[in-house]
Known about the structure:
The chain is mainly alpha-helical and about 110 residues long. It has one domain. The chain has helices at about 10-25, 35-50, 60-75, 85-90, 100-105. The chain is globular and about 40 Å long. The relative contact order is 0.15.
Amino acid sequence: xxxxxxxxxxxxxxxxxxxxxxxTKKTLFTSKLDFNSRKKLVKQYIWNITLYxxxxxxxxxxxxxxxxSFEMWCWRTKISWSVKNEEVLHRIKQERNILHTIKRNKLx
Length: 108
């Protein structure tokens, strides 16, 4: 939904909430899966929920902040909350790339 002032923050927040609900389902992310499989599930399943329709939206700075925060929340669900963001990314051997994914999809 785009508001009168051409903002789509509500839709982005709704997508993030939907993806968080899917990520917290216990049936998907069991401890029986290895970490690489969980990373692939997050990237392919959870991020697809979040990024659906993102190529048609204009991402303002506040929306980019929401998406970056959501990305870190996804990675922190499997790692201790007491470590810094850089440490989380180092442990999972990952870089922040949710915004790069959106930009790459807009170009294609």
